[in-house]
Amino acid sequence: MQISFEGKRALVTGAGKGIGRATALALARCGAEVTAVTRTQADLDSLTQECSSVTPVCVDLADWEATEAALQDVGPIHLLVNNAAYANLQPFLEVTPDQFDQSFSVNVKAVLHVSQIVARGMKARGSRGSIVNVSSQASQCALRDHTVYCATKGALDMLTKVMALELGPHQCFVLCCDQIRVNSVNPTVVMTEMGRLGWSDPEKAKVMMDRIPLGRFAEVEDVVNSILFLLSDKSNMTNGVTLPVDGGFLTC
Ligand code: NDP
């Protein structure tokens, strides 16, 4: 299946590392003009060295005002990937208010905010759009020491569904002309920097892997391919889904 994003403008958050970086590069390879948003300038420098067509935006998405200012001139966006997230693992009884607030600020509130900015532009221009939120299997399955992370991803799944409900309907008479679709991908463990945080211990990793019918963790490319599918016209009738990229983990 050939996917082209020629003539489209995409914005990817958390594009400095891991899944977000690979998504930004894949979108650029498919012809999109990509804006890469993250908070570490060195990551943006190396990203633009690797792909000179990418437009870098350096901002901490936990900061509402700074995000508003950083994205005010971002221009028309057709494709949005809300990928940035914060994971800080601790047992339930040790969760602190700061960890709770930081996690919800990045994993949920920033998704709401960036999506508002982008979707308002889409609506004002009467243009179509597709938004993919990067959630997790942790949104639907309890994982030890993942209290706050699981809670943020559960909230993100519901945010995805309500966005799909409210942004989907179109006002004009040309079929699909200003429809905005919103979906999420829900991966199992991927051995990025974040994945290594929770799953580097071989014993822990084995217990998790044994629960995945395909018997392996996901590769970054597995997640990127599902994101590209949901962004593309190949999924035109798919809206409001939380797509597991988990080798069957959530079915068991
Ligand atoms: P990484 O930690 O490898 O990359 C996350 C990126 O997001 C980094 O570039 C990071 O920048 C950026 N980011 C984090 N917080 C902010 C912020 N406040 N403002 C701007 N940028 C920020 O994570 P992954 O690639 O593994 O994760 C990507 C997505 O996939 C996340 O939503 C995660 O929850 C989800 N996911 C990951 C899984 C895994 O096992 N890896 C499994 C399931 C879902 P910096 O490094 O500068 O903080």
UniProtKB/TrEMBL annotation:
Pfam family, one: adh_short_C2
GO BP: any one term: glucose metabolic process
Entry annotated with the keyword Oxidoreductase: yes
Source domain of life: Eukaryota
Keyword Transit peptide: no
Molecular function as annotated in GO: carbonyl reductase (NADPH) activity; L-xylulose reductase (NADPH) activity
InterPro entries xrefs: KR_dom (IPR057326), L-xylulose/Carbonyl_redctase (IPR051737), Sc_DH/Rdtase_CS (IPR020904), SDR_fam (IPR002347)
Signal peptide feature range: none
Ranges of residues in domain Ketoreductase: 8-183
Alphabetized UniProt keyword annotations: NADP, Oxidoreductase
Family membership: Belongs to the short-chain dehydrogenases/reductases (SDR) family.
Subunit structure: Homotetramer.
Protein known as: L-xylulose reductase
